[in-house]
Fold this sequence. Notes:
With 208 residues, this protein is an alpha/beta fold. It contains 9 helices and 6 strands; from the N terminus they run βαβαααβαβαβαβαα. Helix 1 crosses helix 8 (173-184) and helix 6 crosses helix 9 (187-205). It starts with 19 loop residues before the first strand and ends with a helix.
Amino acid sequence: VYNGVEVGQLPERDRGDGLVRLLHVGRISPEKGHHVLVEALDAAVRDHPEVRMTFVGEESVIPLDWAVAVSSDPAVQGLRRFYGRSYRDQVLELLSPELAERTTFTGRIEYAEIARHYAAADVFVFPSYFESSGVPPIEAMAAGLPVIATRAGGVVESVRDGHTGVFVPRADAEALAEAITALIEDPDARTAMGAAGHARARDVFSWD
């Protein structure tokens, strides 16, 4: 039995301002892959200054002993380097000046405000190293957003590669940058994937 999400009407996204808004929703924590996303965005922004990135969520780092220290996965073990001081601060330090002026961190906000961010975005990005069910990608699909994600946890059961979004390898900033750039440059693909994701969320993940 999946987690349910609210599925309303598809938002109108033809704003005419030329900007492409990317969104991530989730805790600020190493396993969410913010450092990978920032590296990918640095590459994308050089050729696409119209990009804007919003991170929704507070810093809430999973304890080292709960996951990283007990994992046999080398990629997860590699996250140990981010422990010892604020992960959010480390992510901020990775931002180039060009990316920093185009990036917003909202911190913790109420769900109604999060829903407005989903409605205002064009692409949802979710580069996690591991997940449980992964509700934000489902919420993004319900809002009509194409999802760029890794094959982490339950995300493999929600996102349909090439149909409602795109899968990229974990910890691969180059592949993530390529996927982001492809959707920046192809508004028709964004619209088609967003519509397919909305239909899938309605049919599989709505409360009904």
